[in-house]
Write a structure and sequence with these properties.
Elements lengths: L7 H32 L3 H26 L5 H18 L6 H29 L3 H30 L4 H21 L13 H14 L1 H31 L5 H24 L5 H25 L2 H32 L6 H30 L1 H37 L1
Helix pairs in contact: 1-2, 1-4, 1-5, 1-6, 2-4, 2-7, 2-12, 3-4, 3-6, 4-12, 5-9, 5-11, 7-8, 7-12, 8-9, 8-10, 8-11, 8-12, 8-13, 9-11, 10-11, 10-13, 12-13
GO molecular function: transmembrane transporter activity
Protein name: MFS transporter
GO cellular component, one term: plasma membrane
Length: 411
């Protein structure tokens, strides 16, 4: 897998991605401390609104900026997004009101919603070989999982010697280094798409999704992943400290188990996809997720506290493996069903549609979960996950049946 880093352009882009991810993770922690300074006991409300703004920016801005910037070269788009993020991070230490945070978070996440799909759309051109591209996807998945583990540890280490305002300075430096690495890359030539109407550019990605049965099926798996991810991200702390009455470090341990499962699958996926079709791997993961979440709901409802902890740790690990089985190969479908001209729009559509699912499942897991309890909300999310998995299975089965029919007619 590491062999792919011998490609100099990809190595620089991957380094830029990792540095930007670490910067974003540290920035999130510093933002929480800033919110507490400004709002005190209402910091949770401030952060909740900020995270909602983040998701809205991801859903709405990604296709919009892709349409506006469609004819610009990819490198200045990536560099500009990094510099905007650096500028926002530089401004955060001077914030004195909650609404300042909201405005800056919208700008920050809008820049991220521009950077991420553009970055993802460049990689297939940098690594045209499918085997190398698959290994790059696994590295990218590992980077996301490691960031979730390393950012809190890095922030904690820094906070022992500096105040949280200095974390913003480090984040600025990270985004600037990311921009420098992108500038140092030699991008392959990608022809500028022909001029079209703005509405056509805005809807290009969504139309590509609807026209492709593979990508329509991917929409169902986006919903499946969002249901279990919402349960893990929103309710792990409630489960560990409220339901099981365990200490704070066990929250990190449980999230670590989830991340370890995800990383394990990311490591084995390149070899696995040499012998198994990517859609088969993804659908297996998509079917496993609601089953595992249903089992977790049963454990939360009926097992004694003494036995719950180990079993739930194993289930969180398995949820991580199934999630990674869906997410790691998914970009192969996007690459296969796009061209160099519409690839940024297709990746932006996936970015937007997948986060639209989180806009549904995060409030469900949090607000409804607080109202009805963890086992019942797990069942609600299981129901949504089953719907998504069924949609994908039926869509891809129809696609396979159509292909067989076409082959029989041709013969």
């Amino acid at each position: 897998m590491i062999d792919v880093l011998r490609h100099p352009t990809y190595a620089k882009l991957f380094s830029a991605q990792v540095i930007a991810l670490l910067g974003t993770g540290v920035l999130t922690i510093a933002l929480g401390l800033l919110a507490f300074d400004i709002a005190g006991g209402d910091a949770g409300i401030v952060l909740g609104v900020a995270m909602s703004i983040k998701m809205i920016a991801y859903v709405a801005v990604a296709p919009l900026t892709t349409a506006v910037l469609a004819r610009l070269p990819r490198k200045p788009v990536l560099v500009g997004a990094d510099l905007i993020r650096a500028g926002v991070a530089m401004s955060l230490p001077f914030v004195t009101e909650a609404w300042h945070i909201y405005v800056l978070i919208f700008l920050l996440q809008s820049a991220s919603a521009t950077f991420t799909p553009t970055f993802q759309a460049v990689i297939p051109s940098v690594l045209p070989d499918e085997g190398e591209y698959t290994r790059a996807l696994s590295l990218s998945r590992l980077a996301y999982d490691l960031e979730s583990l390393l950012s809190p540890m890095l922030a904690a280490a820094l906070l022992t010697v500096v105040g949280y305002h200095q974390l913003f300075v480090g984040t600025v430096a990270g985004f600037c280094v990311s921009a420098v690495l992108v500038i140092a890359c030699r991008f392959p030539h990608i022809e500028t798409p022909p001029p079209t109407r703005f509405l056509d550019r805005l809807t290009r990605g969504a139309r590509a999704f609807w026209a492709s049965t593979e990508l329509r099926g991917l929409m169902g798996l986006n919903l499946v992943v969002a249901t279990t991810t919402a349960m893990v991200i929103v309710n792990t702390v409630v489960l560990v400290q409220g339901h099981l009455d365990r200490p704070q470090p066990d929250v990190a341990l449980m999230l670590g188990a989830y991340g370890a499962g995800s990383m394990l699958v990311a490591l084995v996926v390149p070899k696995l996809l040499d012998t198994v079709a990517d859609r088969g791997v993804m659908l297996t993961g998509g079917i496993a997720l609601p089953i595992l979440l249903l089992a977790a709901a049963a454990v939360m409802a009926w097992m004694e506290h003494t036995g719950q902890w180990t079993v739930l740790l194993i289930m969180w690990f398995l949820l991580g493996t199934a999630t990674s089985a869906v997410l790691t190969p998914s970009a192969r479908l996007l690459r296969r069903n796009s061209s160099a001209h519409n690839r940024p729009a297709v990746f932006a559509a996936q970015f937007s549609l997948s986060h639209a699912c989180f806009l549904i499942t995060y409030p469900l897991a949090g607000i409804l979960g607080a109202a009805i309890g963890l086992p019942p909300i797990a069942l609600v999310l299981v129901g949504l996950g089953i719907l998504g998995a069924l949609f994908t299975a039926l869509t891809w089965r129809t696609s396979a049946d159509s292909s067989k029919t076409a082959e029989q007619r041709g013969s």
